[in-house]
Write a structure and sequence with these properties.
The chain has about 300 residues and is an alpha/beta fold. About 35% of the residues lie in helices and about 15% in strands.
Length: about 300
């Protein structure tokens, strides 16, 4: 498969990729690891400008895109707060996108409303990359999660991944569950009552013959999971604060739990965390969530270089 398969394309949902395309992105990502670490220098993005349109706060996603672009010799422009741009004056998303595409070669957008990235792509002649749209999709997070599993476990097919926490509102897990199923992993869903994976996501997984099962207790999966993918209960996504308080702190991953786990089990987390993973786990071989944040840089390098056709 050629490296120009994504040239000029929008990256809106993980569903837009075939398994072959995902594998190609993961393969190219590995080639960029030494550049991401600063061990090797590349300037293939020299003269290119990436616009970062963050209508919602972000740390890892925004900085890893910025790092990826700059490590490759490119530049970034953009904003991380709507208060600092004309959106605060009532400018529409369409007009913001139309303006920013004139200043850049590609746009990365994070927005609180589901469907916003696809809408932005309709108004842009430049490639649009979705960095999270409400409770919708976060395809680049999914790709770095897949990359982390492949790098740490050696494969994805046949791996058992327990996805733990807020599966109703967590956009990260919606994209990830579908992609894991498509890549041949077995998915164990663990959530509090009322925060189960949405029915439409489960139906999508069943349609591609994905292996999926549901639980409410971590104890039920700890002995068979190869990967614990832990997420926080996302207070900002809850329409009712009372609903959040009922489920806050439902799960906590600590050494006592992990010591009862399968040999070689790893713990992932998209971060930020609150109290769902004990700090005592951080310095152990179980923890790969900080490596996971690093892996976002080579993955986004691969995507940007493929989308902009500078491979």
């Amino acid at each position: 498969m050629g490296l120009m398969i994504l040239k000029g394309k929008d990256i809106i949902s993980i569903k837009d990729f075939s398994v072959d395309e995902i594998n190609e992105i993961l393969k190219v990502s590995e080639d960029f690891e030494s550049v991401a670490r600063g061990e090797k220098k590349l300037d293939i993005m020299n003269g290119k400008v990436l616009a970062l349109l963050f209508f919602e706060p972000s740390t890892r996603t925004r900085f890893s895109f910025e790092c990826a672009m700059k490590r490759l010799g490119g530049e970034t422009i953009g904003f991380e707060s709507v208060e600092s741009v004309s959106v605060s004056k009532g400018e529409t998303l369409a007009d913001t996108v139309r303006v920013m595409e004139k200043y850049s070669d590609a746009l990365v957008i994070r927005h609180p409303k589901e469907g916003s990235a696809r809408l932005a792509a309709m108004f842009s002649d430049k490639p649009v990359i979705n960095a999270g749209d409400g409770a919708g999709h976060h395809p680049t997070q999914t790709l770095l999660d897949l990359y982390t599993i492949k790098r740490e476990k050696g494969r994805i097919r046949g791996i058992k991944v327990a996805i733990v926490g807020d599966l109703k509102y967590g956009r990260t897990v919606h994209s990830l569950a579908y992609a894991l199923a498509e890549m041949g992993a077995e998915i164990l869903l663990v959530s509090p009552v009322g925060l189960e994976m949405p029915l439409e996501i489960k139906k999508d997984i069943e349609e591609i013959n994905g292996k999926i099962s549901e639980f409410h207790s971590l104890e039920d999966v700890i002995g068979e999971a190869d990967v614990l993918y832990v997420t926080r209960i996302q207070r900002e996504r809850f329409p009712d604060p009372e609903e959040y308080l009922k489920v806050k702190g439902s799960y906590r991953v600590d050494l006592k739990l992990l010591e009862r786990g399968k040999k070689g089990i790893i713990v992932m987390h998209p971060l930020p965390r609150v109290d769902e993973i004990s700090p005592e786990v951080d310095s152990t071989e179980y923890a790969v969530y900080f490596k996971q944040t690093f892996y976002g840089v080579p993955v986004r390098m691969a995507l940007l270089s493929m989308v902009l056709g500078v491979m």
